[in-house]
Amino acid sequence: MDTSILKNIPYSVLDLATVLDGHTAADTFKASLEIAQQSERLGYKRYWFAEHHNMAGVASSATSVLIGFIAGGTSTIRVGSGGIMLPNHSPLIVAEQFGTLASLYPNRIDLGLGRAPGTDQVTAIAIRGENFQAVHNFPRDIDRLHQYFSADNAKSSVRAIPGEGLDIPIWVLGSSTDSARLAAEKGLPYAFASHFAPTYFEQAIAIYRNNFKPSKFLSEPYVMACVNVVAADTDAAAERLSSSVKRMFLGVITGRREMLKPAVDNFDAQWDNLERDAVEQMLFYSFIGSKETIAANLKSFVAKHGVNEVMSTSHIYDHQAKLHSNRLFAEVFDV
C-alpha cells in the first residue's frame, strides 16, 4: 500500500455540540470554540455543525448561530453545516442566513443540506407544521437556494439580501442511495453519514460516482466520508475513551438518550449481546486506537473507497483527551 495515500486528503471536523453530563450548553460552546481554534492550527479544512432538535445531549439546534460563533473566533478554517435539514426551513431564510454568514466571513462558509428532520417525528411536526411533507420538495428547494444565491436573481420579485451573488458551496448530505442519486444529478459534492449509517455507504458512493453529471459547481465527483474517531497514546486508552460514544449509541438504539457520560473501564457490563451487535454495526466506520493503529486502518479505508476527504466526529467526555485525539488524528495525515 502507498504509505503516502493520506498526504493529499483533506481532513475536517463534524461537531454535534455534544453536552457532557454535569455540564451545560454554554460549556459545550466554549469547548467547541477551543477545538475549532486548535483544528485551524492543525490544518483541518472544515468545521461543521449538524442540526438536531429535542435532544438533551446535543446543543446544535440553532446551527447557523453556532457557525457564526465559530467563524468569528477563527480566521481561516471553513465553517459550515453538516447539515442544515432543509425541509425544516424556508429556502429563502436559509439563503439569507448563509448569505449573512458569507458576507461576514467571505470564502469560508459551507452549506451542507440534508432532508431528514434531525429529530423524532413529534418534534418534526412541531418544526414543520403544515409543511410536514416538505421532504418531498428537497430537490426543488436546492434549486431554489441556487437561484437565490445567483446574481441572475437580481430581477426576481423575491431576493435573498444578503446572499445574492455570493459563492456559497452547497453540499448534499445523506445516508442512503436516494441522496447519492440526487447529488449526482445536480453535480454537487456528496457527504455521507458513515459515522452512524454505514449500511449503504459503499453502494451510495458507487451510485454517486457512476451517475455524476458535471455541473457549473463541480466538474467531477467529490466524496467526503464522516467517521468516528477516538485517538489516544495507546489502543487500550482509546478503547476506554470510546466507552462514551458506545454508551451514546446504545442510548440511540434503546431510546434512552442522555448527556455524554464519562468513560468507564469495563463497558461490556453495560449491554447485552444484541445491543452490542447493533451499536457495533452503527459504529462500523470508526477509527479507535493509537495514532499508528488509526493510520493503518485509515489508509486501508481510503485505498478501498477512494474518498476525497475525511471528516471526523469525536464523542469524548474528557476535554483534554478530546483535544489530544484531535491532534493525533491530524498527525495521521502529516506523512
What's the topology here?
Layout lengths: L10 E5 L9 H17 L4 E4 L13 H10 L5 E8 L5 H14 L4 E6 L6 H8 L9 H12 L20 E5 L2 H10 L3 E3 L8 H11 L11 E9 L3 H7 L1 H12 L18 H10 L3 E4 L1 H15 L3 E5 L5 H14 L3
Parallel strand pairs: 1-2, 1-9, 2-3, 3-4, 4-5, 5-6, 6-7, 7-8, 7-9
Helix pairs in contact: 1-12, 3-5, 6-7, 9-10, 11-12
Characteristics:
335 residues; alpha/beta; TIM Barrel; 8-stranded parallel beta barrel; 12 helices; 42% helix; Luciferase-like_sf; Luciferase-like monooxygenase
Low-confidence residue ranges: none
What structural class do helix, strand and pairing data support?
alpha/beta
If strands are numbered along the chain, what order do they take across the biggest sheet? 1-2-3-4-5-6-7-9
CATH architecture grouping: Alpha-Beta Barrel
Strand content: 5-15%
Q: Could you describe the 3D structure shown?
A:
The protein has one domain (11-233, 286-332): Alpha-Beta Barrel (TIM Barrel). 42% of the residues lie in helices and 15% in strands. The chain contains twelve helices and nine strands. It has helices at residues 25-41, 63-72, 91-104, 121-128, 138-149, 177-186, 201-211, 235-241, 243-254, 273-282, 291-305, 319-332; strands spanning 11-15, 46-49, 78-85, 109-114, 170-174, 190-192, 223-231, 286-289, 309-313. The longest helix is centred in the N-terminal third of the chain and has 17 residues, at 25-41. The relative contact order is 0.15. The mean pLDDT is 92.
